[in-house]
Amino acid sequence: MITLGIETSCDELGMALIDWRSNRAWHVLRSQIDLHQVYGGVVPEIAARDHVEHMPKLFEKLIRGSGIKRDEISHVAYTAGPGLIGALLTGSVFAATLARSLNIPAIAVNHMEGHLMMGLMGQSVKFPIFVLLVSGGHSQLMLMSDFGKYQLLGRSIDDAAGEAFDKVAKKMGLGYPGGREIQALAMSDHFNEILHLPLPLRGQKGFNFSFSGLKTATVQLLESLEQTPENKARVARAFQGRVVDSFVNVVQRAVENYQVYDLVISGGVSANTELRRRLVDEVGVNLLAPRLDLCTDNGLMIAYCGGLRAMAGDSQMHHYAVSRWDMCDLGQFSCYRIDQLLDITSV
């Protein structure tokens, strides 16, 4: 069984092939950071057009680099949602066309479940387990009782964490995406006193997040200070600290409430090393997470998730794209080989 994965939910174009017989995988990624950096964020029309232009070339590069022939592919998995509808449609149409030409199934994959499965790859999973998905479009805490069976505990009531990172970074004149830029700047601050910013949703008893007010307060703090490199670093450290505080506090409350100590974290913001460190040191969870280079969008996570669902019996000819798709609406499935690591090659 060989699965092709196609990721086009936003501005990253990712493709991957997994040979489940040998546990080998090859993936290739085209980033559009240079295209969108001038705008300080993703322009949906530009993202979709770039996908259309480069998808065939990226597919050919993947085929050459892997040594796998087209007619050896047994399944095509693609991101059907959630995401930017124009970008999603480019991948959906390419996947459906290729699948029909090869007479093989096209499997619709939920983008966020793809992120989740990257965090579980190679792990021995015992349920229940907490799932923290943190990205540019999502900040969600869920309780996972089986593969495909999710209960939403809390989510951002306004901006997602990644979105807040990007907007604050843009205001500070940093590059895009903002998360890595702010983390690097925050690490350069060596002042003993940390600048004060409000803690979002202080005193709440639930598990929701909020980053819009924190974003506004951060911008106001930045504007009140002299625009020096030192002050920008102090603001970056204070902002990142409050974002991490929010996640740590909510996860701590969930652990106390449910007595569950395993947590899988995934999505672009999960690459933040301060967030990972504090979840382990302060909450004491057993943290499961993807490799840092696989936290952001990539085709491997779609090939992996789609392949696991195919082995569980999902072999229909799907062809659709949806901008919103709740993971809690997905069906439970029997997951095989999740505890086996893949030998991954970038081509």
Topology:
Blueprint: E1 2-7, E2 13-19, E3 24-30, H1 33-36, H2 44-66, E4 75-81, H3 85-102, E5 106-110, H4 111-120, E6 129-134, E7 139-146, E8 149-155, H5 161-171, H6 178-187, H7 212-224, H8 229-258, E9 262-266, H9 273-283, E10 286-288, H10 299-311, E11 343-346
Parallel strand pairs: 1-4, 3-11, 4-5, 6-9, 9-10
Antiparallel strand pairs: 1-2, 2-3, 6-7, 7-8
Helix pairs in contact: 2-3, 4-10, 5-6, 5-7, 6-8, 7-8, 8-9
What does this structure look like?
The structure is a single chain. This protein folds into 2 domains: 2-116 and 294-346, ATPase, nucleotide binding domain (Nucleotidyltransferase, domain 5); 124-289, 2-Layer Sandwich (Nucleotidyltransferase, domain 5). It is 41% helix and 19% strand. It has helices spanning 33-36, 44-66, 85-102, 111-120, 161-171, 178-187, 212-224, 229-258, 273-283, 299-311; strands spanning 2-7, 13-19, 24-30, 75-81, 106-110, 129-134, 139-146, 149-155, 262-266, 286-288, 343-346. A hairpin with a 4-residue loop joins strand 2 (13-19) and strand 3. Helix 8 (229-258) packs across helix 9 (273-283).
Short description:
The protein has 347 residues and is an alpha/beta fold. 41% of the residues lie in helices and 19% in strands. It has two domains: 2-116 and 294-346, Nucleotidyltransferase, domain 5 (2-Layer Sandwich); 124-289, Nucleotidyltransferase, domain 5 (2-Layer Sandwich), CATH 3.30.420.
User: Stretches where pLDDT falls below 50 for ≥5 residues?
Assistant: none
Give me the strand/helix succession.
EEEHHEHEHEEEHHHHEHEHE
For the sheet with most strands, the description reads:
6 strands, mixed
Terminal Cα span = 20 Å
Strand content: 15-25%
- At the first level of CATH, the class of the largest domain is Alpha Beta
> What is the CATH topology descriptor of the largest domain?
Nucleotidyltransferase, domain 5
